[in-house]
Design a protein that fits this description.
Layout lengths: L8 H9 L1 E3 L5 E3 L5 E3 L7 E2 L11 E3 L2 E5 L2 E2 L1 E6 L13 E6 L13 H4 L12 E2 L2 H10 L4 E4 L8 H13 L3 E6 L5 H7 L5 E5 L5 H7 L3 H13 L3 E8 L7 H14 L5 E5 L14 H13 L5 E4 L11 E2 L6 E6 L2 E5 L38
Helix pairs in contact: 3-4, 8-9
Length: about 375
């Protein structure tokens, strides 16, 4: 497994202290103290004293230690920014992230947190906090959702589960914003702790995915698996010029998503130059509109364009798949009109039930949650 760069050792020492034993469901003991990690699609075989590809799950004396008890990023912002367009429009999400990632996308917009311990310039200091404190912050800021994002939440699944359980007790919708490089084991582990899952479908060619550090089929199977497990799922494809924006690849993505669920929302969003990919222009609005048209042609009923507010015509709005009536009008992350949430998810014109989450769950009281990882 990769070694930690010398420049990152101080940060590594801090992060190694903020750990707890991994969940039993996400490990498999092997011979000679080795441990198979099941938290992401890499299924790393972690030797004693070594780390997984993510750099933050480590084998200490034959025990897999995993992140717990801190954040590397924390913000309260619109649910639409995640983006979730079919979950409580106009509400806020308290969004937290830790450090590390199992991929190394050259255009990552969150590289300061995701590439910690991998890039010498990504040295965001962690801030210690408890799961209870995070959930209480969400209530204080009147957020309707608590979401794990900014780095890859799968590699910090134990901490995510702890936070989400605290959120559920307070009546919050719970979400992961993820690259989708999961395993069946981690999806089974997370299912009781989550309501929503956003997946970045980054490409439809295995060669493209391997450049980023994953396999296409792992992400496709994650999407299928999330739907089988009954989670609310929305998909995002960042359209990167010259990487994944051919009409053939866009059509393949739309065709696959429609085969899983034609009512599953698909967001095609604009790339802008960032991190190590500054050699090309941002995505043109007309390219996003064409991608959305292809999505509709392939049978998807809810296709949205993002990151270029006011320049994509009706593709920021939610329209009824039954009668075509406009139900939610948006400009970027701002809700201009919402005819859907007051009717609890039914079209006021034709009474068609619109898929999504339109009501908050009831709070169940703040009590101790058994089985949650704690630092030891």
């Amino acid at each position: 497994m990769p070694r930690v760069p010398d420049a990152a050792r101080t940060l590594a020492d801090v992060l190694d202290r903020l750990t707890a034993p991994a969940a039993r469901e996400l490990t498999r003991a092997e011979d000679r103290g080795r441990i198979r990690c099941l938290a992401c699609g890499h299924r790393c075989m972690v030797l004693p004293g070594q780390r997984g590809i993510c750099q933050v799950r480590l084998n200490r004396d034959g025990e897999l230690r995993v992140p717990l008890g801190y954040v590397g990023a924390l913000q309260c912002d619109p649910i639409e920014k995640k983006p979730f367009f079919h979950v409580l429009p106009g509400s806020d999400a308290l969004t937290f992230g830790m450090l590390g990632c199992d991929l190394h996308c050259p255009y990552c917009h969150n590289w300061l947190t995701s590439q910690a311990l991998r890039d010498d310039h990504a040295q965001v200091p962690p801030e210690e906090i408890t799961a209870t404190q995070l959930a209480d912050l969400a209530v204080r800021y009147d957020a309707a959702m608590i979401a794990s994002s900014y780095n890859e939440p799968l590699i910090t699944s134990e901490w995510g589960a702890a936070v989400m359980d605290e959120g559920r007790q307070r009546g919050l919708v719970r979400a992961f914003v993820s690259n989708g490089n999961a395993t069946p084991e981690v999806l089974d582990f997370l299912r009781p702790h989550l309501d929503c899952y956003k997946v970045d479908l980054k490409a439809m060619r295995d060669a493209g995915y391997r450049q980023l550090g994953a396999k296409l089929e792992s992400v496709l199977e994650t999407i299928r698996g999330l739907k089988r497990r009954g989670l609310w799922v929305e998909i995002v494809t960042l359209l990167v010029p010259g990487l994944n924006d051919s009409e053939e690849e866009i059509r393949d993505a739309a065709r696959f998503l429609a085969s899983v669920d034609p009512l599953m929302p698909w967001h095609v969003t604009a790339f802008h130059p960032d991190y190590k990919m500054t050699d090309r222009a941002g995505t043109a609005a007309r390219a996003l509109v064409r991608a959305a048209e292809i999505g509709l042609e392939q049978g998807l009923r809810y296709v949205y364009c993002g990151n270029v507010p006011g320049r994509v015509g009706p593709y920021e709005d939610t329209r009824c798949h039954g009668c075509g009536a406009t139900l939610v009008r948006r400009l970027g992350y701002t809700i201009l009109e919402d005819r859907l949430t007051p009717t609890r998810g039914s079209c006021p014109e034709c009474a068609t039930r619109i898929p999504g989450i339109w009501e908050r769950p009831a709070a169940i009281g703040v009590t101790a949650t058994p089985g949650v990882a704690r630092r030891a």
